[in-house]
Specification:
single chain, six-stranded mixed sheet, 40% helix, elongated, DNA binding, Transposase_5, Transposase_Tc1-like
Amino acid sequence: MPRRRKRARFEQLTEFERGRIIGLREAGLSYRAVASRVQRNSSTVMRVWKQWTDECRTTRKSGSGPRNVTSARDDRHLVRMARTDRTASSRQLAALWSIATGVSLCASSIRRRLLQCGLRARTPLYRIPLTHDHRRLRLQWANQHRDWRADWQHVVFSDESRFNLWYHDGRIRVRRYAGERHLPECIIERHSGRTPGVMVWGAIAYHRRSQLLRIVGNLNSNRYIREVLQPEAVPFLQSLPGAVFQQDNARPHTARIVKSFFAAQQVQLLPWPACSPDMSPIEHVWDVIGRRLARDPRPVASADELWKHTSEICVHLTWQILPPHIQPVSSLEMSPLLVDESSDSELDIDSSLSAPSPSRRHMPQNDNPR
């Protein structure tokens, strides 16, 4: 038999339960029989029926129930405390409240007061830490490229990303009863070290894309030239008249030998501000691939199988690259671009490219600095 849900102490009757009590009483059932049906005390059934017969209403009177320990002024003070330290837990706020007022208040009361005031505990939005120079350069870059129109059709955006065999994006939930927290089927294992996976490189242009390359091991400047630029990136750029190459500021990308290689090949580079992965449309590609890998029902036991699935997903994506998100960067007055992680692309990547770039929750960040 399914377990009976434990009823909280002093839990109020719902409108459905009140209507059910009245209906059963009108059907001729006794107080005890009705109480057995709705799993309530007989005195509770009597009070509901008496309220209905005497006052013709089922709602509670305003102001009924136990009084709040805090006043409206105390609630405003509590809200100011919570807004001063947004990450403080209810227990920490209760301790601060006890120190400030000398009155003890439990953590559950703190949560109820904050919920009544509209402050709900939510998952924070993660972003890359930016210094003042980072913000200034981002804004300067956005202002310089604000009026670009057809020029974006000649830009080739490139990047690396890593996909792991096991990753958890924070959205996984376990359905369990109370006391089942330590059951094996309710536990998700998390490796403390670096998990096996594949690192890939790719480039996208307007209605076109390069081959997805697998990079084994650490990528340095020499390997970047030998395994990425010479066999794939440069031929892809040469097939696009007037192409402009974009890459981030990872160390293998900005080494002297790489700059000399670009100069020898006459590759035109697009200046890119540091710590700005959110401004590149290719971040959407990695996000879509990561989401589809997470939804893929096929088991993956090795890095080779993961690479096979990743390349298959990349082949079936459709491409239409939109300009980077310059307007949000400019309107935020040098603030980091906020990231929206709620969008979920399906078969067409075009719709996801029109939204702010999601952060890589489905795969770890590259080890190379941006």
